[in-house]
Amino acid sequence: MDNNTEGLDQGLDRDHVRRVFRAMLTARILENKLGSLYKAGKIVGGVYLGKGQEAVSASLAACLEKGRDIYAPLIRDQAGRTAFGEDMLDCTRTYLGSVEGPMHGRDGNIHRGRPSEGMPAMISHLGTAISVVGGMLLAKRIKGELDGVVGATCVGDGCTSTGAFHEGLNTAAVEKLPLVLTIANNQYAYSTPNDRQFACRDLVDKAPGYGVPGYKVDGTDMLECIKVMHHAVSRARAGEGPQLVVASMLRLTGHGEHDDASYVDQELKSSEMGRDCIEVGKQQLIDHGYADAAEVAQWEDEAARVVQEAVAIAQKEADPDPYKDDWMAYSNPELQAR
Amino acid sequence: MSDVTYIDAIHAALGEAMARDPSVFLYGQDIGKFGGAFKATKGLQDKYPGRVIDAPISEDAMAGMAIGAAIEGARPVLEMQFADFSSVAFNQIVNQAATHYYRTGVPVPLTMRLPSGGTPGSGPFHSQSMETLYAHYPGLVVVTPATVADAYSMLLESIAMDDPVIYCEHKFLYRWLKSADYQGDNLPIGHARITRPGKHATVVTYSAMVHEAVRAAEMLQAEGGWEIEVVDLRSVKPLDTDTIIASVARTGRLLAVGEAFPWGGVTAEVVSRVCADGFHLLDAPPARLNARDTPIPYHPKLWAAHRPTPESIAEALNNLLSF
Lengths: 338, 323
Description:
The complex is a heterodimer. Chain A has helices at 14-39, 54-61, 78-84, 88-96, 128-142, 163-174, 206-210, 222-237, 266-269, 277-287, 293-316; strands spanning 70-72, 151-156, 179-185, 188-189, 192-193, 214-218, 243-248. By secondary structure, chain A is of the alpha/beta class. Chain A has a single domain (14-316), classed as Thiamin diphosphate (ThDP)-binding fold, Pyr/PP domains (Rossmann fold), CATH 3.40.50. In chain A, strands 1-2-3-7-6 form a five-stranded parallel β-sheet, with helices on both faces. Chain A has a two-stranded antiparallel ribbon with strand order 4-5. In chain A, strand 4 (188-189) and strand 5 (192-193) form a beta hairpin. The longest helix of chain A has 26 residues, at 14-39. Chain A is globular. By secondary structure, chain B is of the alpha/beta class. Chain B folds into two domains: 4-179, Rossmann fold (3-Layer(aba) Sandwich), CATH 3.40.50.970; 193-321, Rossmann fold (3-Layer(aba) Sandwich), CATH 3.40.50. Chain B is 40% helix and 17% strand. Chain B is built from twelve helices and 14 strands. In chain B, helix 8 links the parallel strand 10 and strand 11 (228-232). In chain B, helix 1 (6-20) runs parallel beside helix 6, helix 8 (209-224) crosses helix 12 and helix 9 crosses helix 10 (265-278). The model of chain B has no long low-confidence stretch (mean pLDDT 97). The chains are: A alpha/beta, B alpha/beta.
């Protein structure tokens, strides 16, 4: 196990740090807006937010390059999606049910992606994306295009109890694929606390069982996340096989916006674990001179404007029309049942 | 040329598909140097290094890997060691592969080979027929070749298809079924075939049961001069309703035969379609014959009485003809 990250100073490139924080901030402002839209009854179905997990999510995806790498976001990865370069309209259109979105109203909320651009669309069954990313990497290997490519995905503490997690990580390890698997341990899977989810001392202890390096990081500490993710992604990129990163934090919201999260332990909330990574990150930017308060305020204004625009565009667009949907589950229409 | 078997046809089609398209690769347990539990991939790893990949015993991850590879433009052919074990991969296949095109517009060109059906002594967990389960889900193609030529041409066609295909190959036919060569009529997937023409009753069936039905038809011909038409579905999804209805129009009587469990399933779908679309053509209530509604037993004597046989099919036909 390689969870000693002391002395790691890679990744702290000024532009990179600023990019990570801006993705975090933009995601938070976008998600606040999504929460409001949900409460106003403008969004059908659920709204699932990543508040409190932005540092982990964005610091992973910011190490990836769209067009070359693969990124499979999960439920709380709006910040990662933003950092990877997902068009914000993909988010607002999918949440608001616009027919113009990447899913055309056929799927909603976080169940969206652009698989042909290296971003698979998640399904709800946990752990399934691990082997899918593995397969995408395997295909690149077969085509002779794997050199320097990384595939990354993020799961939660609850996912670690699934068979798919075990099978997916073990298979990636057997194939020595350049996979960075991040576990965002936010202490609760929906309402189930860690002590009803697993019995090991720490999730990072699973890493040696799979023969992969494991790293622990405080998920509320943006600069630490940036360092660890940069290190893990670099090692995978260098051909050193799967890397497992375990980040700890608290989900600063319910499982979905329908959930008041009243089950979350008050003591945890007021502990270091309950810190808001956006606040921590903002202070770190200022303290280390990556940005000043005025600049951050300007980024906030800019993000609010962009969010407003993306919501307005999606709200004006047409809903899907059941008479116009082709109702085709097959790419070859002749296969569709008559 | 010496005779070729059904498993030879599968082996030959895999080799041919790999020769034609460098994006085709094989993935499964023990398929590399060992050549697979049934030797369907024997020698292919030497011929195509890096494209015949041994998988750990992780059916869920195997399916997920195949799906990911297919999304990325490869054409994986996944070998489940036995169809029964694909239950572990079910989630990935029905939720990930089957929904993918409808959700994202990106097709998943994977083929999952399922060594299916019973053989004497195989027991409850190495004998299952899974076609009904997969056919239930939108987005999957489910094929069930019954002949050497179909095993060959339909596997090549499955691999070339952009949509996910569940290729159900019958283990009982592997070495028992022989032919002079692989050449057939190359009928496309989605088309049923009249295996044996007749005029007194239609048996609609698929996979190994085609051969049992033909034997039953021969018995009835010898016993009473009955001319029984046997329709081989070839693919259960899509289901060629037109050919079935046309046959029932000729004979007025329908028996649907399958080796799978009796609740629901392919035979129920066939009967329901004929009732809905061809009720006026029927001279007798349509009948179904399936395996018994118990797990598949181990002992050859129990096993032989669990699935339809030429004798039980002939009996069902006699009942149908005497209505």
